[in-house]
Every structure is written in C-alpha cells, then in structure tokens.
Amino acid sequence: MTDAKPVLHLDDIVKTFPGVRALDGVSFSVMPGEVHALMGENGAGKSTLMKVLGGIYQPDGGAIYMGNDKVVMAGPLEAKAKGIVFIHQELSLAEELSVAENIYLGELPRKRFGRVDWATLTERTDAILKKLNVGFDAKTRVGDLSIANQQMVEIARALTVDAKAVIFDEPTASLTDAEKVVLFDVISDLKSEGVGIIYISHRMEEIFKITDRISILRDGQYQGTVATADTDEEAVTQMMIGRTLDLSRNTSHHELGDVALEVRGLSCGKLYKDVSFEVRRGEVVGFYGLVGAGRTEIAETLFGLRDPSAGKILLDGEEVRIASPADAIARGISLVPEDRKGQGLVLGMNCRDNMTLPQVDDLKAGPFVAEGAEIAIFDQYRDRLDIRTPGWKQQVGNLSGGNQQKIVIGKWLSMHPNVLIVDEPTRGIDVGSKSEIHKLLRELAAQGYAVMVISSEMPEVLHVSDRIVAMYSGQIMRTFTSEEVTEDNLIQAISGIKSGQAA
Ligand SMILES: Nc1ncnc2c1ncn2[C@@H]1O[C@H](COP(=O)(O)OP(=O)(O)OP(=O)(O)O)[C@@H](O)[C@H]1O
Ligand SMILES: [Mg+2]
C-alpha cells in the first residue's frame, strides 16, 4: 500500500440500543484496493457497524470520513450515492419481482414518457449475470431462486454501482464451492479497480485466503487491526474471544448403545439412491459431502418432509413411516434445518417463546403455559450456547445473525430427541460458540442420543464424529471410523472416487 488516502475511515463510532452498547468506540481505515476483514463473535457489533456505514443506523457518536471529507450517511440511498455498496447478511430482495427489477430497483431504465425500457433492462442484467456465471436469467422471479442464487442477485446489484467501497456481510454462508470461486473472482476484480472491500466472515480459511488486513471487535469494542500475512488463526481467535481453542479431532468415545436409527436401501427419486446406514445411541455420525450430495434431502425424509421412493426406515428396530414433521417429532426425531431463517424463527416473537414453541403443549399447566418452565428452558440454553441478548423479552429479529441461529439450535436441543439431526449446525456461528456446539453434540451423544451431523466443513466433521459417511451425488461412497479417516481419503470419497472398498 502506498501513501494513498483511505477510501473510508471510521473514527470512534458509538452506537447503543436499549440495553446494549453495540459499538463502543470503533476506529479503522480501509485503503483503496484492500480487502479488509471484520471479525468478532456473534453479537460483537459487525453488522451494526456496517449498517452505520450504510446509512441504515445513525451513530450516537464518532464520524465517518471518505478521503479527506467528513461524511454523514443520512440514509441508504445517500450511502449508495457516495459509492458505498452493501451486501447484507439478511437478504433484502423483493421476492415477487424479477431478477432484473431487483437489480435496478429505483433506477429502472426508462423510455420517453417514463415507461420502463424492458429491452435495455434485460440486456444490461443478462450482461452482469453472464459475468457471474449463474444459471438463471434477468426475467426469473427472485422468489423462485435458491438462497444461494438470491445471494448472487445481491452481488449482481452491487456490480451496477460505481462503487468506492463494497461491504460483504457473511456472503458465503449459503454459497456452494463453485459460487464461492465466482465471488472471490468478483472481489479480486473490484480490488484491482481500487475499490475498498470490507469482508465479514466467521470462516478462517476464507479470511486467510482473500484478505489483506483484519480488524477485530469484541463486545462492541475495537481490539486492533493486523496484517493477515503477519498473523494466524490462533492469534485472531485470541483477540476475538480472549482465549485459544482446542481444534483437534475427536478422540473421545462413549459406550455405544442399541441402534436407534437404521436406514436400508432408502431412495428418493433422483435426489439420493440406495442409502443404508445406522446410528447408535451414544454415537455421532457425520455426513460429509459437497453441497448437493443429497445429505439435506435424507435429513428431510427422516423428518417427514419428503416421501422416500424406496427403502425402509427403522427406529429402535421397528419399521416406521414418517408422514410429517409432527409425526417425526412425536417419534423423537428433531431436525435443526440448514435454512434456519426460513424454517426456524418468528422474528417478531421474543427469544423465550421462539425457543419453546414446539413444546408449548407439553409445558401447559392447566389452560396456561407454565411461564417459569419456559424461562428455565430459555435460561439453560442461553447459558450453554452463550446467546447474547439483554433478556428473554428481546424480539428475535433484534438479535445478531449468529445469535438468532443459536435460538433455533436451542429450540431443537431442548426437546431431548432420541435422534437429533443437525444440518450445517455452525453456519454463521463464531469460532468460540462453534466449539461449544461441538462439545454439546458430543455430550448429547454421551447421554444416549443418536446424533447425525451434516456438514460441509471438514474440520467440523472430523471434530465431532465417531463415524463419517462420505456422500457423492446422492450415494454413500464410503463410511469411515474416526481412526481410519484422513483428510485425503475423505476428499477422494466425496469427489466420487471409490477406494479401499469393493464397488
Ligand atoms: N435493532 C436492534 N435493536 C436492539 N439490539 C440490536 C439491534 N441490532 C443489533 N442489536 C444488538 O447489537 C449487538 C450487535 O449486533 P450485530 O448484529 O452487530 O452483531 P454481529 O457482530 O453482526 O454478530 P453475528 O456474527 O452474529 O452476525 C447485539 O447484541 C444485538 O443483539
Ligand atoms: Mg452480523
């Protein structure tokens, strides 16, 4: 970096909400052509800081500078006009509108007499989509796209602006590996054009791969900025959470009980084929594979959300037909879904009620729900999962992204299921809480639960599993014990190479 002026300089920013000092004096600069990571635990203040930059919140103190000028971001449109582009953690698209309309919302190209120039709109949009190499076009309705593709639309929208700074708030949480490659190319293009980039993520590999510097927040307080090349995961973790973590593999084993769940020759159309496995009480079985390998679909079948086209499901040795999620819950199966936003939470409802929602009927004392019992459940999982909130009365919509996810996880754990299925349990969760959740899953197994963990993160499956099922394209390629698994043979198996096992 030369003695160029920073694109952005934040000076002593303060922001409070009722009961929460979300930002407590944060200062750092972003240089042109720099990818600047912003890291911190769930609830540390990252998204809030970016919303201050994007004109969504007004700070209670401090100032923002662009070049030499002090600027006030009176609102999102003004921030955009100043060249600050924001890709949100929560998607902010209009589902009923087309991809093109979403991308150019508020700035649709017009013909004479103010009519929308659809031909130009479609042409411009398709040109951007081509650059992003996506499999949908300008006219697609946004509501029909997957979450990952909606994320790509947000990114496309960012590319239409003459940006000085682009903020990515956990952009890869729902992207496939191929989409990540495209995203990183986009970032590298922006970088070479001299745009300043702020990149928020809990994924250390990404941070160390694409960023130049890292600024760290803890409880809304600025901890410092380090050059990525001069630091490592351990040092960053220490700055974020004030301690280091044991990230080694699982070596503990508990006594295994009976087979709780057995699946024989299960198929579901083209989604997965002839899948057989068992999970014992006391066991954590990891399901590893690429996005699209069929793991989520198996989980959905076990939870009564999909009908299998062939094969059998046995619970405690008895064949069952799981007709619906209610049926699954009644049989002691819980699923922590992958898409927790869509499937898990009522944002306008408070933390406690969200967490105890599926149990409300069981907690009833006479005609009323036993409030004390509900609060006790909430308190227990708030402590265990370290959920940061001023109290159970807080609306879930006001929690940080990661803390919202913890509420969903707590909700399903508190049901004490026989079979617990978790799909990408730590997506969007900070490193400290991640290791807490891993510990909790191991403990649940030790208490006699059968646990299935679906994850796309290799360190995670290695860390929690007693056995690992490797899937590729809807089929099980191989099952490993934690003693025999290596990173190499696992990668081979999920890439579709059968080895060490008769086909
Ligand atoms: N609108 C709001 N009303 C009340 N509290 C809020 C609001 N927005 C954020 N907070 C609180 O401010 C703190 C910081 O939240 P923020 O969303 O910035 O965290 P984050 O660092 O982005 O976390 P994550 O990694 O989980 O996304 C949290 O305690 C959160 O509950
Ligand atoms: Mg956030």
Describe this structure in words.
The chain has 503 residues and is of the alpha/beta class. It folds into two domains: 8-241, P-loop containing nucleotide triphosphate hydrolases (Rossmann fold, 3-Layer(aba) Sandwich); 245-249 and 258-332 and 421-503, Rossmann fold (3-Layer(aba) Sandwich), CATH 3.40.50.300. The chain contains 17 helices and 22 strands. It has helices at residues 46-53, 76-81, 99-103, 118-132, 147-159, 177-192, 204-210, 233-241, 295-302, 325-330, 340-344, 351-356, 371-385, 401-413, 431-446, 458-464, 487-494, and strands at 8-17, 20-30, 35-39, 61-66, 69-71, 84-87, 165-169, 196-200, 213-218, 221-227, 259-268, 272-280, 284-289, 310-315, 318-320, 333-336, 364-365, 368-369, 419-423, 450-455, 467-472, 475-481. The strands form five sheets. Strands 6-7-8-3-9-10 form a six-stranded mixed β-sheet, with helices on both faces. It has a six-stranded mixed β-sheet with strand order 16-19-20-13-21-22, sandwiched between helices. A hairpin with a 2-residue loop joins strand 9 (213-218) and strand 10 (221-227). The longest helix has 16 residues, at 177-192. Bound molecules: adenosine-5'-triphosphate and magnesium ion (MG).
SSE blueprint and pairings:
Blueprint: E1 8-17, E2 20-30, E3 35-39, H1 46-53, E4 61-66, E5 69-71, H2 76-81, E6 84-87, H3 99-103, H4 118-132, H5 147-159, E7 165-169, H6 177-192, E8 196-200, H7 204-210, E9 213-218, E10 221-227, H8 233-241, E11 259-268, E12 272-280, E13 284-289, H9 295-302, E14 310-315, E15 318-320, H10 325-330, E16 333-336, H11 340-344, H12 351-356, E17 364-365, E18 368-369, H13 371-385, H14 401-413, E19 419-423, H15 431-446, E20 450-455, H16 458-464, E21 467-472, E22 475-481, H17 487-494
Parallel strand pairs: 3-8, 3-9, 6-7, 7-8, 13-20, 13-21, 16-19, 19-20
Antiparallel strand pairs: 1-2, 1-4, 4-5, 9-10, 11-12, 11-14, 14-15, 17-18, 21-22
